[in-house]
Amino acid sequence: MSITKYEAASLYDYIQQKHSSIKDYLIIDLDDSSCGYCVCNGKTDIRLDKSWQENSENLWSVVNEALNKMISNSHRLNIEAEIEGQLASANKAFRNYFLSGKSLNAEAFSFSNITISCAELDEKLTVLKEKIAKLLSHAIALVSADKMIDTNIIILGKAQEMYLAMYYIREKLSYDPMLPDERFRNDELVDSYTDIVEKGMLLYNAMTNLKHTYSLLAFNPESNSFDAIYTVSKENAKSNVAELVFSEPVLLCDDDKLSIRADDTIINISLPYSIAPARSDLIDVAIGLKDNEDTLFIRRCRFPTRIYNVKLS
Fold first, then answer.
1. Contact yes or no for 258/230 (Cβ under 8 A)
2. CA separation, residue 97 to residues 43, 131, 135, 248, 295 (Å)
3. Would you call 53 helix, strand, or coil by DSSP?
4. Who's near 221: CB < 8 A, 6+ residues apart?
5. For residues 84 and 78, is the Cβ–Cβ distance under 8 A?
6. DSSP character string of 262-286
């Protein structure tokens, strides 16, 4: 089972923050102008509630196009590498620009004999501001008004590296774009925003997939061999006992062991309880996840509410 990028980013932060209660997340991707609203209620209980995407426009390209037009008389046709090289100093200049109420209008970018000030770029990037405003209007619409104040916000996409773009976002979503807003999670992420989606998916797979494919083996007198009578593949794990699919009943005598094949390895497991004074016991088994560990669940047919579990990994 796979999850969306919105769920993966939400799960990454949920686990990083060691949350255990319900948390809401608004994920905004500037690389394709999309957004998604997720609800996390546990490490494996995560769902994408709503999402929106219209034209898949990359807002970092909008920045590049605007700067290219501003230096259209120069010899440069593509300045993306130069923009990235000056981004740190430009971000510092823009922070001071907005902190000073736009009175400190320092140089933002310089390309040979062409210098672009903070005010000039702020004016020329009106189109970026408008596109961000449109995207945010759809993002806000995904979240009920009473939850917006407590909803965690993660911004994905290259354009979020630019202070000006983040200022436009904070201007719409925060009371004051220059004041701290703990809902914005990007500054607290251990890993780069470029990695959290992949890592979130890996975390989800690790918690919802078995480490092996397992089979319960039983002796077949016709073939004079042990054959699989119940198999669970690693992608079909269940962590909720109510959802477990149990095997057909198996009769075990007092000294018998369960034979489980984990991929190509045979594991022999004794019953975790005594069947005395009886000489045999009828059981069925299931294999799933418990506390993120591969687990064998054993159910006594005489006492179906009693389910024992044995760690397999």
1. no
2. 41, 22, 25, 71, 58
3. strand
4. none
5. no
6. ETTEEEEE--SS--TTSSEEEEEEE
Strands 303-311 and 293-300: antiparallel
Q: Cβ neighbours of residue 90 under 8 Å, at least 6 residues apart? A: 108, 109, 162, 163, 164
Q: How far is CA 304 from CA 204, 247, 249, in A?
A: 31, 13, 12
Q: How buried is residue 45: exposed, middle or buried, by Cβ count under 10 Å (0-12/13-18/19+)?
A: exposed
User: Which domains does the chain show, CATH number per domain?
Assistant: 1-208 (3.30.420.40), 214-311 (no CATH)
**Residue 286 burial (CB count, 10 A):** 21
pLDDT in 10s for each residue of the chain, 313 residues: 589 999 999 999 999 999 989 999 999 999 999 999 999 987 778 999 999 998 899 999 999 999 988 887 555 556 788 899 999 999 999 999 999 999 999 999 998 888 999 999 999 999 999 999 999 999 999 999 999 999 999 999 999 999 999 999 999 999 999 999 999 999 999 999 999 999 999 998 888 888 899 999 988 888 888 899 999 988 766 666 568 889 999 999 888 999 999 999 999 999 999 998 889 999 999 998 888 788 999 999 999 998 999 999 7
With beta carbons less than 8 A apart as the criterion, state whether 117 and 105 touch: yes
Q: Name residue 161's amino acid.
A: E
* Close Cβ partners of 191 (under 8 Å, ≥ 6 residues apart): 12, 199
Dihedrals phi, psi of 301, to nearest 5 degrees: -65, -30
**Nearest to 286, CA basis, from 251, 225, 222, 239:** 239
Residue 277 φ then ψ, to 5°: -85, 0
| CA-closest candidate to residue 67, choices 162, 143, 132, 3 | 162
- What is the C-alpha separation between 37 and 153, in angstroms, rounded? 9
**What's the pTM value of the predicted model, to 2 decimals?**
0.80
